[in-house]
Design goal:
This protein is mainly β and about 120 residues long. It has no helices and 11 strands. About 0% of the residues lie in helices and about 55% in strands. The strands form 2 sheets. Strands 2, 4, 5, 6, 9, 10 and 11 form a 7-stranded mixed sheet that branches. Strands 1-3-8-7 form a 4-stranded antiparallel sheet, with no helix packed on it. It is globular. The relative contact order is 0.33.
């Protein structure tokens, strides 16, 4: 079992920055890939950024150059640094961890960007 807890969401003005954190616990040796997804009202949950166990990263085109995913292995934590935020970034952001058999999800954290 893997447990994920997100934090760091909030209200920010357009052009501002936020850093989301995802603390993982449990069977961490099973995790192969971690990522951040977001879901706006009435829309699908989409991948924002992901990082593999080997350190490779990928990003949605809409956030490239603005968001950075990183990890701190000593703290078992994955981060999403979000810069130059836009109103269209407003969504609930979810942390995801993928193992061989299962996907695990955090509870989500709300990010609201005002114009």
């Amino acid at each position: 079992q893997v447990q994920l807890v997100e934090s760091g969401g909030g209200l920010v003005q357009a052009g501002g920055s936020l850093r989301l954190s995802c603390a993982a616990s449990g069977s961490l040796f099973s995790i192969r890939r971690m990522g951040w997804y977001r879901q706006a009202p009435g829309k699908q949950r989409d991948l924002v950024a992901a990082i593999t166990s080997g350190g490779s990263t990928n990003y949605a085109d809409s956030v490239k150059g603005r968001f950075t995913i990183s990890r701190d292995n000593a703290k078992n934590t994955v981060y999403l640094q979000m810069n130059s935020l836009k109103p269209e970034d407003t969504a609930v952001y979810y942390c995801n961890a993928g193992t061989f058999r299962n996907d695990y999800w955090g509870q989500g954290t709300q990010v609201t960007v005002s114009s």
